[in-house]
Amino acid sequence: MTTTAVREQHANVTTYLPNEPADAVVFAACTEDVQTTVRICAAHGVPVIAWGAGTSLEGQVNAPRGGVCIDLSRMNRILAVNSADLDCVLEPGVTRKRLNEDLRDQGLFFPIDPGADATLGGMVSTRASGTNAVRYGTMKDNVLSLKVVTADGRLITTGTRARKSAAGYDLTRLFVGAEGTLGIVTEITLKLYGIPEAISSAVCPFPSITTACDAVIATIQSGIPVARIELLDEVQVKACNAYARLSLAETPTLFMEFHGTTAGVHEQAELFGAIAAEFGGGPSEFSVKPEERSRLWQARHDAYWAALLLRPGAKAVATDVCVPISRLADCVEATKADIVAMGLVAPIVGHVGDGNFHTVLMVDMDDAADLAKAKQFMARLVERALAMGGTATGEHGIGQGKMKYMAAEHGEGALDAMRAIKRALDPHNIMNPDKIFTL
Amino acid sequence: MTTTAVREQHANVTTYLPNEPADAVVFAACTEDVQTTVRICAAHGVPVIAWGAGTSLEGQVNAPRGGVCIDLSRMNRILAVNSADLDCVLEPGVTRKRLNEDLRDQGLFFPIDPGADATLGGMVSTRASGTNAVRYGTMKDNVLSLKVVTADGRLITTGTRARKSAAGYDLTRLFVGAEGTLGIVTEITLKLYGIPEAISSAVCPFPSITTACDAVIATIQSGIPVARIELLDEVQVKACNAYARLSLAETPTLFMEFHGTTAGVHEQAELFGAIAAEFGGGPSEFSVKPEERSRLWQARHDAYWAALLLRPGAKAVATDVCVPISRLADCVEATKADIVAMGLVAPIVGHVGDGNFHTVLMVDMDDAADLAKAKQFMARLVERALAMGGTATGEHGIGQGKMKYMAAEHGEGALDAMRAIKRALDPHNIMNPDKIFTL
């Protein structure tokens, strides 16, 4: 399709980055459709951009050079669920919520939850993670194998269903997080997990960001296998109270979840409570009731919508960084000080067990000065994270928005190695060009 | 050094593969030594082969085209242990045992244990794993960042100390398992873990391989976070009884280890016991005493030496494959049948939680027919694993010994992608050439 409306829907709409539509959108129904489209584009040197649900945050789906967008959302079949092997095979257009609805009856789940109901193909390509990553890892850790259409239209398979292999280069991990710049994922084999016998959640207020972060470090060090450990700063707690009609103390707060046996989650919660108390946190409120847990985590997942209440009319611009956990309190505190000094409205939420946190900036998009200030803040945030030995992005990816930090983070040598790989696998630079880096 | 003895010591000595020494051995004391050596070799088109402890099993350290072996064993400093971040930074010549001796006082450990006291550089390069991988993953999952000297002598850094990142291609995972064909690792940042509060072990006999494997599947599916779950077939149990003076029933047996809190390991052991009983296994013998646990795991780790008793004068040739766990019993049973049919002496041990198992063939190296039979058996083993959706090697790597299976496992397309990456990063093919694949 080539109508303006469809083309614009299939480009970036989530952030401050401009909407740069492709020249045409192809709706692929099967792998052969993808191969045919790529072959035609390759013959004419036309860019190819893959599309899932359009929830990426750094302009990954934009078409700055035009070209063809391949919408994979109709390739949404779950091809196999192998419960004995705890794995499944699916097409890239399956969304994470639908996958989990499908798996529930079999007592299985897929843990990675990047907030939005993204497609698994998009989650593979941006190396997504989310609240459960502290226990279950990121997409990097949960993809067993991929089928990928490469720049010449060939279909390759990157692995097997075996749980581990030492047979050659790890192509799977090369395509995970490559943002469609090396090929288009058309089939995914994922690890699955049994739904835990027991799940409990806890909410624990702290006097400060630092005490909350110190409690997180102690919790992780002590080996408590927390499934989720999320920080909300007092600004975000206030927003969640208003949006989700909660009555939490408006102070830095940890949201926790424990997975295990009934006795196990009880013990984990107790151990955590003792650690929290050591750092002046608490009292923790625990819950094992599914409806209370759902309400809590819905409030956490609605942080973005809640934040919008803080500045009516503004648009939310989410960004993320990740630092070694020992630097987390410093990084969050310095970031909060910057928010105050710059007069911004920007709650902070974090997957703090990984050292990863987000700021959600409320920006008046019609005010050029306001947007410029937001960009300045984001640049300082990344520089702060890099100076602390961290990364420019824990889970949102590079896309267009963070390309400018690649050399600072990786050094020219590593960036040249990435470029060499890109040239080797996509010599005519047709696969999602001008994302991650330019050639 | 260029003496024949030193050169031969620095090539393959562990298997049936020939000893193919380099022309000279350089003992690197620092990263600059590696860079200088690589630059000189690059200028003259001379191959460079990295060396750690020489424990690899597929000829990874051979020099079929001659060249320079860089011995990294003197680069053995632990540069930093960051206990708050649960990570450490070290040079590639540190061995895993020394690392753990160093960490013990701080209550930390590094779990990956490929049997031999390999260097961490070698473990990175062969994507090593071992008995703990079912709980802690393989080297792929436990390396945060690498410094690598590439084919042009440049030093690149592949990541940060942040726990996760979505910033560009995953160069770390590309070098992990590349067997030195893309560059030489000169610094490694590893994840660490707190030594568990409690560790318990168990030994559980089963009436058959199938029942033991079914118990393993049920254990993994139930979510019991087993730290180790190892299968020894009756042949290996017999050998261990003789070598380690144990008195285990000579039947397929699972060796288990549980990590957690005192209450947690007790609960895990009880849950496992109930599952084992369902499949006719047991009674389990449990132990929480360190000396009893050590004796048990020493016996497991000495499986190789024990196996040598089964055929005095023979040499042990170890090989491994990995299959989806649902096919494990079939694969092991078919392999045992083949061992019997071919009249071989070959105990089986397996990291069965991952679907990975080893056969240790007792071969009379002076008897060409005996060696030919062993090779025939190994080829059939790999073909069997591939036919079951598995991989040619779970943890030993490809080296020279398994190159012939790369196309069958990966397909020509994926193998071409690997070759393209190799050419891009090592255009003159000097980094450990003719390993994994030929160009």
UniProtKB/TrEMBL annotation, chains A, B:
Pfam families: FAD-oxidase_C (PF02913), FAD_binding_4 (PF01565). Its cofactor is FAD. Keywords: FAD, Flavoprotein, Oxidoreductase, Transit peptide. Its EC number is 1.1.2.4. The keyword Oxidoreductase applies. Residues 18-195 form the FAD-binding PCMH-type domain. Coiled coil: none annotated. GO terms for molecular function: D-lactate dehydrogenase (cytochrome) activity. PANTHER family: D-LACTATE DEHYDROGENASE, D-LACTATE DEHYDROGENASE, MITOCHONDRIAL-RELATED. Belongs to the FAD-binding oxidoreductase/transferase type 4 family. This is D-lactate dehydrogenase (cytochrome). It comes from Xanthobacter agilis.
